[in-house]
């Protein structure tokens, strides 16, 4: 069955919209009551819930900032003691970054993307739900710790050795390391499914170069999250291992290096700024042209600018470490990259200004926030260029100037555009109009309050005030500026409170909005307000995509697009090719389920046991995690031999791809990309400890032949496993039994695991030296992957036993093969690195 | 995307910045390695081994970008526009960020 030519597909005949809606609603809607909300996997429900929860955390973070400003209003305030003050500023930064900004962008993207791309949901709805529950539970752990007085207190970037066991003996630092890592499951889950959805679920005929710019921004963001979060997760895992088991990755006395933490943290931390900025810029590129009644200027240049930012932002991380004693040449590399990244940012700024120049801007509420963005973000960008210059950086480092700069960038570059976006899409989300006047008042309070607070902090910083100090009794000259900052901080808070009240009033009491109230052309407005869970009664082809929201709305509702209704009682969406978006097959999405919540609770049990210090028991909690993931995968095997589906008159598509990749394969590829970044970061750590760390050298340890033999055996066994995966797939595709091959593969993987365990037994104790600790971490990484490969092969064997492996649908075989090959490559690299480390010693 | 597959087009799109990222990472890694192994003290003609080692990946990236720029129109036809911009990004970024290797003290 060849992919259909989009121009040759006849339209479905029009039908009555209401029966079509009822048919779809029966299949796609949430269950009734609270349980229906808990089990929902709808991107609309979860996107809204992500955003609402993020706003709650934003409120908590905002309250903490008020406590900080109250403390700093006078030089010697006794309002907060130092220990509590440390917890409060640490939690303020951590909440705003990990519990507000990232989930907010995830929520907005989850909510909007399927609507903009002309599809019914994201690629992995259960993953959306799992991400949400991990976010909520992880965030709750952090907030509970704050209420209990054991919150992290080492600053939001948790520098070692301060965050090590010696200087932070309680569980405060563990709360951050485990809680934030738990939350980041949601970030990785969101990144994978947003990327796969953009590449594989676009409406038929929507080529990459024709998709909305918002999708380009989210594609860039998702790629950055996949590359940026693994170093942070690795750093957190290593620091937790040091704190829990004494593996001295960051302990200088045993060959570790605190700078390794800084590298790993900022490898995430600086791209993070752009991870936050890109979706906000996506909002701007969406809203500005419509409010100016014109088209965006420079679509291609903006896509190229996104590309530039995605890559260049990974070459800046060391500019957070300019004062730690780095050679001149390295300083120069990172200084140059830090300045260069201003260019793609400027390209976008000029494209937006050009769009406004060409059109006729309407000064509606979202436009006010956009103007606030321009005013604020450009100033933040310019102070960023100042900080990219090394000599200035040395002077301003760790002063209030940096605090001012980062708030100009983050509030200017993220909060203002997001407020514009919320004001823009509230009629879509709530189906109601806002009450005029309140939003404008909130805007002016926020704008005046913000600049009053943070512009002055540039000056206090330049006068020498360090960040994060609770008192400044010896510098009364800072008081006037600080008092003013505190006053305006409260003005800004009143503005945010007013904004929240405006939203609540609009959602609860606003008049019903007309459809497409902004006369926007994009597909997100070509639906009922608020949208049903399925978004579109039929999916738009090229003609309806180009008709604009007003032109497409009725035709889509009457089923004139592709795949109308839900006549088979299944949640069906179209999977299209990456480039030209040619329809490839119909994917069946899962129904509502509590499985994501239960899985998140099981992971939470593991996290809590680790937090409580029950290290021996904690691995037991992973057994239900494995069992639930197994059950998750079993439920995905729904329609083994479903008949082809008629998406348009005479046009049939299979339910399984014929030759191409499934959505799950695409998702796994994304996961392996992130996984590869994790491994690369670990290898970077090994090289850093071996070459750069000034600590004592690793004690000599002579590897004998047995160790080398074990390492070679592990790699050889994994190679056999990879061959077994390929062989099993070939047999299934030829309709021949593969049970014996699969049994062999399980045995081979178990032998590899045993070989690795023997290798680990022979290696020196990881507590001896940082070099030994990194080596042990590498072995543990490989061991985890072999264990998963074993489970994968056992799962495929179970499928074979049940008769679920068919030539058209070879079950888990392709995914297992992909994992097995990655494990082989990772093991070979790890063993080579161990050998190189030994040879170097 | 009608002329080549979507993944091929995406590969062309990211080729330039990827070349920069690879050169940047390798150069930074070689810089640390060279400082540890004393490469600045070893001369290769008028320059140190350290500078040569760090400059080589940049030169390779620049050459790669130039070659791809020469071929992008043939390969992608009317869809070459944005990937061409990507290659220019790779080229300019490599030239700008790696220029300090010519002047700055190394270790």
Structural summary, described in words:
The complex is a heterodimer of chains A (841) and B (107). Chain A has 841 residues and is an all-alpha fold. In chain A, a hairpin with a 6-residue loop joins strand 1 (571-576) and strand 2 (583-589). In chain A, helix 3 runs parallel beside helix 5 (125-147) and helix 24 packs antiparallel against helix 25 (813-840). Helix content of chain A is 66%, strand content 2%. Chain B is mainly α and 107 residues long. Chain B has one domain. In chain B, 73% of the residues lie in helices and 4% in strands. Chain B has three helices and two strands. Chain B has a two-stranded antiparallel ribbon. In chain B, strand 1 and strand 2 (47-48) form a beta hairpin. Chain B is elongated and about 55 Å long.
Characterize the overall form of chain A: globular
Largest sheet of chain A: 2 strands, antiparallel
Taking the alpha carbons of the first and last residues of chain B, their distance comes to 47 Å
SSE-based structural type of chain A? mainly alpha
Structural class of chain B: mainly alpha
User: Biggest sheet of chain B: strands, sense, closure?
Assistant: 2 strands, antiparallel
**Which strand order does the major sheet of chain B show?**
1-2
Low-confidence stretches of chain B: none
Helices of chain B, by number, come to 3
Low-confidence stretches of chain A: none
Q: What's the helix count of chain A?
A: 25
Total strand segments of chain B: 2
Q: Average pLDDT value of chain A?
A: 93
Number of domains of chain B: 1
Rounded Rg of chain A: 27 Å
The level of helicity of chain A is 55-70%
Q: Any key phrases for this structure?
A:
heterodimer; A: 841 residues; mainly alpha; Four Helix Bundle (Hemerythrin (Met), subunit A); two-stranded antiparallel sheet; two-stranded antiparallel ribbon; 25 helices; globular; B: 107 residues; 4% strand
């Amino acid at each position: 069955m060849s992919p259909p030519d989009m121009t040759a597909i006849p339209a479905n005949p029009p039908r009555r919209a209401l029966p079509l809606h009822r048919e779809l609603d029966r299949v796609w809607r949430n269950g009734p009551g609270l349980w229906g909300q808990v089990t929902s996997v709808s991107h609309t429900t979860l996107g809204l819930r992500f955003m609402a929860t993020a706003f709650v955390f934003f409120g908590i973070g905002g309250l903490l900032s008020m406590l900080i400003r109250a403390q700093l209003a006078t030089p010697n305030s006794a309002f907060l003691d130092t220990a509590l003050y440390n917890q409060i500023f640490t939690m303020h930064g951590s909440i705003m970054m990990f519990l507000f900004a990232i989930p907010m962008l995830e929520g907005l993207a989850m909510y909007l993307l399927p609507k903009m791309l002309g599809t019914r949901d994201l690629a992995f709805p259960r993953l959306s739900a799992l991400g949400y529950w991990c976010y909520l539970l992880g965030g709750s752990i952090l907030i509970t710790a704050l209420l209990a007085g054991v919150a992290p207190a080492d600053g939001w970037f948790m520098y070692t050795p301060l965050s090590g066991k010696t200087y932070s003996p309680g569980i405060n630092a563990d709360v951050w390391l485990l809680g934030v890592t738990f939350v980041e499951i949601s970030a990785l889950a969101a990144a994978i499914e947003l990327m796969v959805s953009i590449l594989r679920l676009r409406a038929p005929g929507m080529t990459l170069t024709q998709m909305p710019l918002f999708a380009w921004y989210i594609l860039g963001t998702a790629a950055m999250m996949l590359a940026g979060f693994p170093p942070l997760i690795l750093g957190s895992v290593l620091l937790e291992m040091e704190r829990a088991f004494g593996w001295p990755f960051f302990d200088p006395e045993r060959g570790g290096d605190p700078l390794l933490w800084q590298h790993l943290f900022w490898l995430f931390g600086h791209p993070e700024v752009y991870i936050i900025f890109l979706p906000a810029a996506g909002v701007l590129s969406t809203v500005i042209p419509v409010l100016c009644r014109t088209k965006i200027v420079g679509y291609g240049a903006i896509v190229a600018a996104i590309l530039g930012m995605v890559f260049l932002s990974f070459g800046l991380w060391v500019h957070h470490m300019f004062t730690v004693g780095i050679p001149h040449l390295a300083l120069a590399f990172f200084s140059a990259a830090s300045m260069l990244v201003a260019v793609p940012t400027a390209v976008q700024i000029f494209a937006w200004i050009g769009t406004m120049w060409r059109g006729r801007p309407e000064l509606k509420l979202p436009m006010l926030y956009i103007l606030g963005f321009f005013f604020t973000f450009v100033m933040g960008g310019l102070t960023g260029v100042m900080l990219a210059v090394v000599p200035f950086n040395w002077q301003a480092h760790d002063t209030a100037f940096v605090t001012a700069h980062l708030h100009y960038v983050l509030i200017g570059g993220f909060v203002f555009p997001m407020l514009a976006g919320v004001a823009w899409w509230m009629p879509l989300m709530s189906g109601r109009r806002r009450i005029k006047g309140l939003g404008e008042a909130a805007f002016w309070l926020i704008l005046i309050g913000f600049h009053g607070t943070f512009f002055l902090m540039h000056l206090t910083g330049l006068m020498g005030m360090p960040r994060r100090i609770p008192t400044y009794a010896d510098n009364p000259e800072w008081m006037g500026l600080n008092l003013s900052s505190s006053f305006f901080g409260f003005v800004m808070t009143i503005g945010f409170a007013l904004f929240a009240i405006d939203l609540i009033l609009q959602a609860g009491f606003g008049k019903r909005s007309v459809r497409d109230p902004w006369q926007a052309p994009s597909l997100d407005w070509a639906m009922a307000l608020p949208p049903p869970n399925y978004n579109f009664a039929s999916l738009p082809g090229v003609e309806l995509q180009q008709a604009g929201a007003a032109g497409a709305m009725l035709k889509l509702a009457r089923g004139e697009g592709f795949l109308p209704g839900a006549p088979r009682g299944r949640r069906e969406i179209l999977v299209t090719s990456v480039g030209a978006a040619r329809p490839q097959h119909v994917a069946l999405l899962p129904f509502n389920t509590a499985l994501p919540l239960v899985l998140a609770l099981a992971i939470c049990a593991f996290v809590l046991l680790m937090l409580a210090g029950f290290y021996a028991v904690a691995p037991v909690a992973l057994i239900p995690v494995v069992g639930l993931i197994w059950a998750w995968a079993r439920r995905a095997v729904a329609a083994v031999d479903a008949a082809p589906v008629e998406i348009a008159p005479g046009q049939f598509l299979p339910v399984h791809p014929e030759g191409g990749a499934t959505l799950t394969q695409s998702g796994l590829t994304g996961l392996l990309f992130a996984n590869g970044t994790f491994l690369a970061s670990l290898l970077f750590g090994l090289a850093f400890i071996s070459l750069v760390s000034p600590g004592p050298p690793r004690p000599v340890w002579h590897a004998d032949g047995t160790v080398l033999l074990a390492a070679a055996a592990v790699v050889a066994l994994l190679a056999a496993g990879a061959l077994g995966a390929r062989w099993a797939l070939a047999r299934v595709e030829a309709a021949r039994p593969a049970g014996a091959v699969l049994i062999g593969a399980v045995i081979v993987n178990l032998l590899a695991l045993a070989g690795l365990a023997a290798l680990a037994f022979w290696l020196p104790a990881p507590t001896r030296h940082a070099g030994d600790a990194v080596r042990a971490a590498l072995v543990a990484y490989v061991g985890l992957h072999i264990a998963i490969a074993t489970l994968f092969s056992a799962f495929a064997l179970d499928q074979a036993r049940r008769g679920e492996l068919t030539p058209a649908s070879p079950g888990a075989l392709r995914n297992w093969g992909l994992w097995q090959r990655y494990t082989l490559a990772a093991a070979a690299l790890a063993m080579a690195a161990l050998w190189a480390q030994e040879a170097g010693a | 995307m009608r002329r080549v597959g979507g993944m091929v087009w995406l590969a062309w799109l990211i080729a330039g910045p990827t070349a920069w990222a690879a050169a940047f990472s390798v150069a930074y890694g070689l810089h640390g390695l060279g400082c540890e192994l004393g490469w600045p003290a070893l001369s290769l003609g008028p320059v140190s081994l350290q500078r040569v080692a760090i400059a080589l990946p940049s030169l390779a990236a620049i050459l790669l970008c130039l070659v791809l720029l020469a071929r992008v129109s043939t390969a992608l036809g009317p869809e070459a526009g944005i990937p061409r911009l990507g290659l220019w990004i790779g080229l300019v970024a490599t030239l700008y960020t790696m220029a300090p290797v010519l002047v700055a003290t190394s270790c």
